[in-house]
Design a protein that fits this description.
This protein has 180 residues and is mainly α. It has helices spanning 3-11, 15-40, 45-52, 56-62, 72-82, 96-101, 105-108, 126-138, 157-168.
Length: 180
């Protein structure tokens, strides 16, 4: 671990510092990633604006690292224009030093859906293709358990919520006057 990461970890223990630093890094990350992906696609700001059905001024504003009035709706439009998905996630402060250390052009670039290696069709042996077609039809049943899927420990949302509700009955029931 670098001295910079160690120093940042110490600084992030201070609540006021950590909140300000995290917000500033988020603004820089989003703005820089938009610009990097736009340049990766060889687009001008006006090209991205056209793809988003907005103005070049809006694109200029969202590429500014000092901009902080992010709107999920706008970020979804950016994602669609780039043909990538938007991911929003809550994270611990302890992950921030690693994110900062990996913050570079290469880590910000994204491949569009049409060239996404995770979505490209893979060649399969003849017999395996037919078996997989049968499995794909069976996967359309949302009530299957985790053991019946190749999803590891995940459950379909409706079953998972039902299981959680059963486990939680009578335990730590929320008080009516408590807010989330």
């Amino acid at each position: 671990m670098s001295d910079i990461s160690d120093a940042l970890r110490c600084e992030l223990r201070d609540p006021e510092y950590s909140e300000g630093y995290a917000e500033s890094f988020l603004n820089s990350y989003i703005a820089t990633q938009i610009k990097v992906i736009r340049e990766q696609r060889e687009m001008k700001q006006s090209d991205l604006a056209k793809a988003m059905n907005t103005s070049q001024t809006v694109v200029s504003r969202i590429e500014n690292v000092n901009y902080s009035a992010w709107n999920i709706k706008t970020l979804k439009r950016v994602a669609r224009a780039f043909r990538v998905r938007l991911r929003v996630s809550f994270e611990t402060y302890g992950t921030l030093p690693d994110e900062v250390s990996k913050f570079d052009r290469g880590s910000l670039q994204r491949t569009e859906r049409e060239k996404d290696p995770g979505l490209l069709e893979r060649k399969k042996p003849r017999g395996q293709a037919l078996d997989e077609q049968r499995l794909a039809v069976n996967d359309l049943n949302p009530r299957r358990t985790a053991d019946e899927h190749d999803w590891g420990n995940t459950l379909p949302v409706d079953q998972g919520l039902s299981d959680l509700a059963q486990k939680g009955k009578g335990q730590n029931e929320p008080q009516s006057d408590r807010a989330f």
